[in-house]
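In response to the reviewer comment on reproducibility (Comment 2.3), we provide here a single inverse folding case reported in full, input and output, so that an independent group could reproduce the run without further information from us. The structure tokens appear first.
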């Protein structure tokens, strides 16, 4: 693992990315740490890891040692202390120590979820969120919605079981505050929709 130590390198690492974080390559800084953290999953959605969820934002070297930055999906998320402990424990098992910094600004956005994370949500039976912001991040919405649909204010939430657009919200709060409860009017299955933020 290469460890940047010059002031310039440290400053560059303090700029947090605004968007999804791709899986790290062996040539990138702190690769070993990122690899270990691939095994740390969202306590509420165990098929998706923290990087894919967009919760894991940075691994960096500070004057007091290694630091891992995580951003909760919403303020007061009850799973946050669990994620903190899971990160510390995953690193401790490999003989590494890191401070875990919980950063709430800029606020987490569903746009920070990776494409693979969204696909895993769908496979798990949770409809992934539509992009919450305008612009290029809408590309993954348009691919499964018609042009007319895409231009309308309300995009259909697709059923993760059968792909139908014929769905309806039955409760704005599902199993957690992050999700709304939907029901498919074609296959009649209820499902969670991860709401955009
Ligand atoms: Zn369905």
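Designed residues, in position order:
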């Amino acid at each position: 693992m290469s460890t940047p130590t010059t002031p310039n390198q440290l400053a560059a690492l303090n700029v947090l990315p605004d968007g999804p974080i791709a899986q790290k390559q062996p040539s990138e800084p702190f690769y070993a740490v990122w690899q270990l953290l691939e095994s740390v999953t969202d306590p509420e959605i165990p098929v998706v890891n923290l990087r894919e969820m967009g919760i894991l934002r940075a691994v960096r070297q500070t004057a007091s040692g290694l630091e891992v930055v995580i951003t909760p999906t919403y303020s007061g998320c009850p799973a946050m202390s669990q994620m903190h402990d899971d990160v510390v424990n995953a690193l401790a098992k490999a003989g590494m120590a890191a401070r875990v910094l919980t950063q709430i600004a800029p606020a987490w956005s569903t746009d920070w979820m990776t494409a693979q994370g969204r696909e895993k949500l769908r496979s798990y039976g949770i409809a992934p969120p539509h992009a919450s912001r305008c612009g290029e991040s809408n590309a993954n919405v348009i691919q499964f919605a018609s042009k007319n649909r895409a231009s309308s204010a309300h995009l259909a939430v697709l059923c993760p079981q059968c792909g139908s657009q014929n769905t309806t919200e039955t409760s704005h709060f599902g199993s957690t505050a992050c999700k709304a409860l939907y029901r498919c009017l074609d296959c009649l299955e209820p499902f969670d929709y991860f709401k955009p933020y």
